[in-house]
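User: Hey, quick favor. My workstation is busy. Could you predict this chain's structure for me?
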Amino acid sequence: QVQIVESGGGSVQPGGSLRLSCSISTSLSLYTVGWYRQTPGHYREHVASITFKDFPTYDDAVKGRFTISRDNAKNTVDLQMNNLKPEDTAMYFCTWKSLWGQGTQVTVSS
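Assistant: No problem, here it is.
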């Protein structure tokens, strides 16, 4: 059974940074890996994705602040988040082949 584990969440002040990591227990292979986020009472929304050829896609709300990267040898996908804003507060999830991890909480507050 494939396991997807997110880590790196926490609480930071506005303008701060966090680096999330998604670890997958099998080869990433040719599949795109994505990061999504969700707040209570809202749908899960796309944040960033990266293809097996390292082509990234970002939601407009995070462009220029977040960077997604992929390490196929380690089966990990990281999300570097800079200049965090209170509206970035959410549970962040990693997804691969329609499978999801349990999420990691990010809270941005002064």
